[in-house]
Amino acid sequence: MFYQWQPSRAGDYLRELVPEAFAGVAQSDGYGVYERFAEERGLIRMALR
To answer: 27 is in which domain, residue-wise?
Structure first.
């Protein structure tokens, strides 16, 4: 498990934080940018809320 807090909800930090090779499940609060990020990467499944 890994927890990261950022002062912004912008998706840019996700691209820096999550390695390109990551495949798996990430949990979020359902904010739309996270779902779009998962769709961009293709190998990430979002567990919302």
So the answer is: 22-48
